[in-house]
Write a structure and sequence with these properties.
mainly alpha
Length: about 140
């Protein structure tokens, strides 16, 4: 049996803590949703820091499932739908975090908080409508 353990240095911990503390409550809520969706902290972090596309992160998150499907077979339509749904969830969470973490100045008198709320609602609208489309295809 192969066993490996990761060593997390105090410096690594400080960097992650600093990054997390730089976000507001709503952005952290979006991050939690992303982490729970793909069962990883590093993959959503990579998406939110523009190092990976959501599709690539989901592809990596589903490595074990793909290996199991290659070994034991898969239900043809189910795994594709699950991957699309997971991609939608991660992308929506990343948008939610982005819109809640970045201040945007507008000359037309729209308050920053109102704008953030509108953009976050738009991200959720995209997420829910994407899931409805996936379910209709079944």
């Amino acid at each position: 049996m192969i066993s490996a353990s990761a060593v997390v240095s105090p410096e690594d911990t400080r960097i992650v803590e600093k990054w997390l503390l730089s976000h507001n409550f709503w952005a952290l809520t979006g991050m939690q949703y992303a982490v729970e969706s793909v069962k990883s902290v590093l993959l959503p972090y990579s998406v939110m820091t523009f190092k990976l596309q959501a599709e690539d992160a989901v592809h990596r998150a589903m490595l074990e499932q793909r290996t199991q499907a290659e070994t034991w077979g898969s239900v043809e339509w189910a795994h594709g739908v699950e991957e699309e749904e997971l991609t939608t969830r991660l992308a929506a969470a990343a948008l939610f975090v982005y819109f809640n973490s970045n201040a945007v100045e507008w000359a037309h008198g729209v308050e920053e908080e109102e704008l953030t709320t509108r953009l976050a609602a738009a991200a959720l609208f995209v997420y829910f409508n994407s899931n409805a489309v996936i379910k209709k295809k079944l």
